[in-house]
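Box 4.2: Ligand-aware structure prediction
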Amino acid sequence: VFKGTLADSPAKLLACLQLNGRIDKELGRLYSYAAMKSDQDTRRSQYQGMKQMLQQLVTDYNSKASFVAPEITSMDRAKIDAAIAQEPGLKIYRMYLDDILRTKAHRLSTGEEKILAQSGLLAAAPVSIYSILSNAELPFAEITLSDGTTARLDQAAYGKYRAVPNRADRKAVFDAFFGTFDKFEQTYGAQLSAQVNKDMFYTRARNYESSLHRALDANNIPVEVYHTLIKNVNNNLDSFHRYLKLKQRMLGVEQLEYFDVYAPVVEDVELEYTYEQAVELVAEALKPLGEDYVGLVKRSADERWTDVYPNPGKRSGAYCNGSCYDVHPYMLLNYNGRYNDVSTLAHELGHAMHSYYSNKAQPYATADYATFVAEVASTLNEALLIHKMLDTIDDDDVRLSLLMNYLDGVKGTVFRQTQFAEFELAIHETAESGKPLTGDVLTQLYGDVLKRYYGHEEGVCHVDDLYCVEWA
Ligand SMILES: [Zn+2]
C-alpha cells in the first residue's frame, strides 16, 4: 500500500509508520509468548515450533517492510524536518527517523535491504542451537557431595553448589560442570564461530569498519567509549586483586583457586529466604522510590508476572521481558532462596518497573530503551537492597557476608562484564583478521583474558586450564 509513496506527503509517511508500529508491537507480543513459553521448558518442541513460525513471520514482515528505510533516506533532513513541522503526529517518530538518517551511509538499496531482511531467519540459528543444547540436551554430570547429596550439575545447580562451604565439593562441582562443556568444546566453538560470522556478515554488508563499530552505532555510541572502558578497568585490576586477596584471607586458604570465588567467606551464615519473604524484603528496601513503585512491586508478585523457581529444562539465569507493551513486563528467575537470588529479584524488578513506567508514559514508538542505560534501574535496586539489609542487621558475621556479596556484585557488574566485553572484542577481531575460531582457539583467547583479570600469573588466583572453557 505504502511502497514508493513515503516521500509523497507527511500524512502518508505518518500512516505508514503508525501501521508499521502496530504490526511491530503485535509481533513483539506474539514472539514474547512463544519465547517465554519455550524458556519455561526448552525441551518442549511445541513452543520451539511456535518460535520458529514467529521467526519466519517476523522475517517475512521485515522483508516486506524493507522499503521503509531506503525511502526515508532518499529524503534529506530538511524534507523530514518540514514533514514533522507540518504533521505533528510525526513528532513521536523523530528519534526513529533521525536514527535512519544518521546511519544513512550504512543503509542499502531496497533490493539489498530485502535480501538482508530475509537473512534474519538464518541469523537466528546459532543462538537457538546453543540454547537447546545447553538447556535441554547437554548430558550434565551427576555428582555426590561430601554430605551425601547427589546433584545433576546443570546451570541452575552449578549456580547453587559452586557456593558450598566444603572446598573439595566446590572443586568437584567445577570439575564436573566445566568437564561437561569441555566434552563439547568444538561443538560450542562451531556455534560461537557461526554467531561471530553472522556479525561479520552484517558488518561487511552494511559497510562498517568493524563489528564493534556496527554494534555501537545502533545506540550512537563512539567506539572510544568501549576502548576506554577496557583500558581503565585494566588499569585498575589492582583493586580487583585486592578483593580477591581479601577473599583468600577470609577463606583462610593458602592459594585462592578459581573454584573458591563463589565460596561463602563467613562460616555458618546461611541466609535463606522464601520467595514470599524476598518480595517483602525487596518491597521494604525500595520504599525510597515511593508508594506507587512499591505497590507495583507487590502487584507484580500478586499477579504472578514472574516464573520463579528452577525446573528441569528451564532456561538458566534471569531476565525481564518488557516488550509486551499492552500487557505488563514478565520476569524469569531461577530462585534458589539465597541472598543473591533476593538481589537478583530486586535487579529484575528494576528492569520491570523501568519497562512498566516507560510503557505507561511513552507511546510505543519511544517506549523502548537501550541496553546501555537499562542497568541503571536494576543496579540502583540492588544498592537499595544492601543498604536496607545493612541498616537492619546487627550481627557482624551476617553483615560481613552481605558486604562481601555486595563486593561480588561490583565484581560482576564492573570487572566481569568488562572481561566478557574484552573477550567478545578479541573473538570478533580474530575472525575479522581472517583467523579461525575453533573451540580450542576460543578457550585459549578466553583463558588469556580470564587469567589476566584474576591475576593468575601473579599468584592472586589460580585458574585451572579446564575452567577456561567457561566461554561455552
Ligand atoms: Zn540487568
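In the box above, the bound molecule is zinc ion. The beta strands are 142-144, 150-152, 306-307, 319-321, 330-332.
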